Amino acid sequence: WQVPLYGSLKLNTDGSCIDNVCAGGGVVRDHTGMIILAFSSSFGIGNSAEAEAKAMHLGLRLCSERGMSISFMELDSLFLVNCFNDLWDPPWAIECILRDCKNLIPSHASVSHVFREANGLADRLAAHGHTCQ
After folding, report:
1. 43: left (phi over 0), alpha (psi -120 to 50) or beta
2. Which of 21, 33, 48, 101 has the highest count of CB atoms within 10 angstroms of its CB?
3. Domain 9-130, what fold?
4. Domain ranges in the chain?
5. pLDDT tens-digit readout, 16-71
6. Rounded to whole angstroms, how far apart are CA atoms 27 and 15?
7. Considering the entire predicted model, what is its pTM?
8. Nearest to residue 88, comparing CAs of 108, 113, 69, 51?
C-alpha cells in the first residue's frame, strides 16, 4: 500500500463472498497513512461482484456523509474497476450500485486496481464483515 499525495485521502475497499453470503470492508487513510475511517459490514446473500460493489458503495457513502473528499480509491477487483471506469458493461445486479457510486465520488478522483497484497487491511475488514450483524 502506498500513501496518497499530500493533503489527499485514499479509500481502499474489498468484498468477500463465502457460500453466497456477502460482506465487505474498507479503510480511508490520509497522506501520512493515518487511518481516518474503517468499516466492516455484512451484506446478505449475493455473489462476489455484489460484495465488491456494495463495499465500494458503503465506503463512498460513509465518506460522503462525513464530508470527506476522496482523491484515490483502490480495489483488488479488476472486474469492478473496469466496470466502474466504463471499460466493461457491468452485470445488471450491480449496475445501479455503480451508478450511485459515481454520484458519490468526486469527479477528480481516480478508481484503480491494486493487487490483493496491497489491499491487506481492506481484505481483513471484509473478512470481519462476515461476523457483523
Report:
1. alpha
2. 101
3. Nucleotidyltransferase; domain 5 (3.30.420)
4. 9-130
5. 999 999 999 999 999 999 999 999 999 999 999 999 999 999 999 999 999 999 99
6. 12
7. 0.96
8. 113
